[in-house]
Specification:
Layout lengths: L1 H5 L2 H43 L36 H5 L14 H20 L3 H23 L4 H14 L8 H26 L6 H14 L4 H22 L11 H21 L4
Length: about 290
């Protein structure tokens, strides 16, 4: 108790952000796993409705971010609260289900730890206040988008569009940038990748990226303003090119296999959030 009392408000904010981030990371694992499946189920339901307009369709079991409760994907046994402690439960169980012994992917504790560490980092960088809390929420959304896109090459509208509007609303008060820069950032972010998409398609006859990438860059522009778009694009493009080359050379991945661009955009967005101003200064932007 004396140690807690001796902590400054800033230190307490960082510690609280880390602990809450670990818990949110556990929920993000649910979002990453279930949201694409929820989208697929919704698409199938829409197709079924079109195929049988007036037929009585069978009600599918509820499947969303709340139900069914967390369970082992192999034996379907519901997880107890003791088995659902971020990072710690995975370590205590040695990465295996308590009931059937099947291996649990290390990605679960990785997402939890990453969320906790990045939440604390952002809290330390911005300090207590609207900017710090808002930046943590942005980081949570970027983590979910990064892993969903890596798994499925999808960037769900359920995340990107609210993120866009929240960015604009946050900057009504100029929390990160003036509203004018936020609006221009959202519009320019979308239009830039939209133009790249069509130029590539006209030149090659192929689609180089998805519409989700346009919306994600628009959302980052809404949060960080138009001046951060060039650093985000440059960082994501360089990292994406390097990773793609490494995958082709070392992993034998064919050049025709699509590589999602979302993870590089999210990483570049995080870097711009934390260190965008000095980077923009190096590039002589604004």
């Amino acid at each position: 108790m004396e140690g807690m009392a001796a902590m400054s408000p800033e230190q307490f904010f960082v510690l609280g952000a880390a602990l809450i981030g670990l818990t949110v990371g556990s929920f993000l694992n649910v979002v990453i796993h279930r949201l694409p499946r929820m989208m697929e189920a919704a698409w199938r339901a829409q197709c079924d409705e079109l195929a049988a307009k007036h037929a009585q369709l069978e009600q599918a079991p509820r499947y969303d971010l709340i139900l069914p409760a967390s369970h082992c994907p192999q034996c379907k046994t519901p997880l107890r609260a003791l088995d659902n402690i971020p990072v710690l439960s995975w370590l205590l169980l040695r990465g295996k289900c308590r009931h059937c012994g099947v291996a649990i992917s290390p990605r679960y504790p990785i997402v939890e730890a990453l969320t906790g560490v990045l939440s604390a980092w952002v809290a330390w960088h911005f300090g207590w206040g609207v900017a710090g809390v808002a930046a943590i929420v942005l980081v949570w959304a970027l983590i979910a988008l990064c892993f969903i896109d890596a798994d499925t090459t999808l960037l769900p509208d359920d995340i990107t569009l609210p993120l866009l509007w929240i960015g604009l609303l946050i900057n009504v008060g100029g929390v990160f940038v003036p509203l004018r820069e936020a609006v221009l950032g959202a519009a320019a972010g979308y239009l830039f990748l939209w133009l790249v998409y069509w130029l590539f398609k006209i030149a090659t006859g192929k689609e180089g990226m998805g519409y989700g990438d346009f919306k994600l860059l628009a959302a980052l522009g809404a949060w960080l303003g138009w001046k951060m778009l060039l650093p985000i694009i440059l960082i994501s493009s360089v990292v994406g090119a390097v990773v793609g080359l490494v995958l082709m050379l070392l992993a034998g991945r064919g050049k025709d296999i699509p590589i999602p661009f979302g993870p590089y955009l999210t990483a570049a967005g995080l870097i711009a959030l934390l260190y965008g101003e000095p980077i923009a200064g190096l590039l002589a932007i604004g």
